[in-house]
Specification:
Elements (H helix, E strand, L loop, with lengths): L1 H4 L9 H8 L3 E5 L4 E3 L7 E7 L2 E7 L2 E8 L3 E3 L1 H6 L6 E4 L3 E7 H10 L1 H27 L2 H12 L5 E3 L2 H8 L3 H13 L3 E4 L2 E4 L1
Helix pairs in contact: 4-5, 6-8, 7-8
Length: 203
């Protein structure tokens, strides 16, 4: 129950309503590199990530662009599930992963019975849209050093620190690992950050 309650979409539901949803959830497990869904698959529900990491990405003419890296607890695939048709992107497990699957029919019934959830869903979809707009801006207008610095500022906690995994950052920003490493070195030289092991801190 605490997993669903931690999601803004379901946070205001009663314990009884949460239990009803739990009764129709399907547990699924994926190994590293296994595909959860592709843009060729019917968008027949949403995935609630409870363990592991999942990469959402698009492929264009043999090239791949990461759209987002998801960590627990988060929802994946809600836009496609609401719209119908196929999923708009691909999702793959970056490590051993566990999800709870909620079928589109059940999601639709939940929204019909709880109008406030529809408003929350609009908010979630708006946040995803802003994220994509920001991604397009970064890819189009900013150099690698600026993109890495903006990433650190956005992801850092209140103390200005974050665990910095170069491979993950490279995927999220559409850069090579080498480019991210060079950008980190430049930011250290400019006195913007300090790095100790895997921890990066804003200065």
């Amino acid at each position: 129950m605490h997993v669903l309650k931690s999601l803004p979409l379901f946070s205001t539901l009663t314990d009884l309503e949460i239990r009803k949803i739990e009764n129709v959830l399907i547990y699924r497990r994926y190994h590293r590199g296994q595909v959860l869904f592709s843009s060729y698959d019917e968008a027949n529900g949403i995935y609630i990530l409870t363990y592991g990491k999942v990469k959402l990405y698009k492929s264009f003419g043999g090239k791949e662009q990461t759209l987002r890296i998801f960590a627990p607890v988060s929802m994946i695939g809600e836009a496609g599930a609401l719209k119908g048709g196929n999923f708009p992107a691909n999702a793959v497990a970056l490590e051993d992963t566990e999800v709870l699957f909620l079928h589109r029919k059940e999601l639709t019934n939940i929204i019909k019975n709880n109008p406030d959830i529809a408003m929350k869903m609009i908010g979630i979809l708006s946040e995803r849209l802003f994220h994509l707009v920001s991604l397009v801006e970064n890819l189009s207008l900013k150099d690698a050093v600026s993109r890495v610095y903006d990433y650190i500022v956005h992801k850092a906690d209140e103390s200005g620190r974050l665990e910095f995994k170069t491979t993950i950052v490279a995927m999220e920003l559409g850069l090579t690992v080498e480019t991210v490493s060079r950008a980190v070195s430049q930011l250290k030289k400019r006195g913007k950050i300090r790095k100790t092991g895997k921890i990066v801190e804003l200065i």
